[in-house]
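Case study B.
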Amino acid sequence: MPTPKTILDKIWDAHLVQSADGAVPLVYIDYQLLTEVAGPQAFERLRSDGRDIWRPDRTIATIDRNVSAKAAKTPEVEKQIQSLVDNCREKCIGCFGIGNVNQGLIYVVAPEQGIVQPGMTIVSGALHASTCGALGALALEVNAKESECVLAAQSMPMVKPKLMEIRVNGALPPGSSAKDLAMAVLIKAFDLMRQDELLDQYVIEYTGEAIRTLNMTGRLTLCNMTSYSGALSAIIAPDELTFKYLKGRPHCPMLGREFDAAVTKWKSFRSDDGCAYDKTIQIDASEIKPTVSWGIAPGFSLSIDDCIPLTDEHLNDFCHHLMHKALKFMGFSPLWNMTDIAVDCAFIGSSAGGRLGDLRAAAKVVKGYKCNPNVTAVVSPGSGIVKMKAEAAGLDKIFLDAGFRWGEPGSSNIELEDAPTNGICASTSSEFQICSGVRTCLVSPAMAAAAAITGKFTDIRNWEYR
Amino acid sequence: MDKYISITGLAADVAKESIGAAFLISRSLFKSEEQTLQDWTDSGVKAVVASEFSSRFTKMALQNGILPITLSDEQIKQLLQNVSDRPGYKLTVNLESQTVSDEFGLSVPFEADSFYKRCLMDGVDIVSFALSAEKAIEAYEEKWNK
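Model:
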């Protein structure tokens, strides 16, 4: 019997270019994803070092988030966008620019276009590369030097990560979503940090019944938010749902024989029974309630029916300090009920809440209601494709009728710029702490929608759908 | 990239005036953005000395030609004392023998990652390292039909 291998072992073995004694292995990268923020710096370095691009066809760029009319007015943003567009044109790199229907947030666009496929290696300088792991790819965030290296050689030296299994048993109860599961994972990671254990050498593989029953929107959200655990990335072995999702996407193999052959290959990218993980932790999905983050770091999250905790004396110094800082920053006090806290704005969008499935979940809540007059509410579809499909399904009308703004794809929280400074925002984004001047509390798309209507954090389990 | 073997230069407290310094010493856990690192490389910084570095920073610094040197809190305290007591205080960092020394008899060993040690000593950055395997990359692409 051959030794059982993990999904990571298999992807690693299939991408090893060279592994010499005493040197860090050189690993082939299937695609590099560029944005206007992470891209220009790498091009500049490449140019100043007098190097060329190895495989322009394995580099894909998109204008990520600086799209709204308001944002485009700042000269710095204009410059970033122009720089990316010019570089891509000069180097023959495909770029989803403004006005292109496919443009959007990189981690919405890359899966949507079928660029990310099971068993691939993907890198990006943009935060949350782990999102791509939802399709069974090994996706890593790189710094500008590594980004330059991959542009120049389509490979980079890399130490093999360790693999941690997070087995999510049982099923999520009604009202709980992938976002809530992600926050439960981050609480676990925070607990480990409290014991001075960091996850910075690990890729996390999600397994278990609850993962298999998550839809692709949910898997992408879970993997997206995993980057906050401090882990290198997240990965979910591909299954029938993955293949169905990929079928017919522009960058995927042609339907028919080619696609079937790809599926056969993709199926091999799974961890064998009896394989050895470097670490395993278990989570019971049935215990996960709708969750709200209340602080400035992942791990500061609690159930919607809970209250802000007392500062915990068992915390180590670092965490204790962080907790005080969080309370001060948010302006909350211990023992406040979460459902008593008023919100000033609600944001539904981002690469962890701006996909069609997220918009559908939110629209279901909003239907037949009006926003609270004190709340600035915004929906921002994650890409041009999401926007188009949502409008075809009439979701934009539901939001607009209720008093939400309907933003441009990927325009992100920028649309909230006229919201009260330091306001509290019920947000589906993946940014803890602050975004565009508002303080964010992360919630699922349904909970963000409910907060926009009631004007405070609301337990979605008691919602009366109209 | 210049070859990194034995370098003598000014030492400074990173929290204070540090223009012209080759070695930056930090009292606490060292954190920095990549842009700062690149600016340091451009201004001639060769090493940062602290009692703790994040793994992300360590890799990023080494890739930008800056050596992260981990010393004990005691040793850091002593170095900072020397910096404030002796204007123009210099250190010598010898990567080959992995020691930090000064002209007053100080000599402390430090740990170094063997791969990046070789890269720095050969003056090879990760891009040159990867491109030196050009043939292997081509062979890989051929074999895997990429």
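Chain B has a mean pLDDT of 91. The remaining cases will be described in the next quarterly update.
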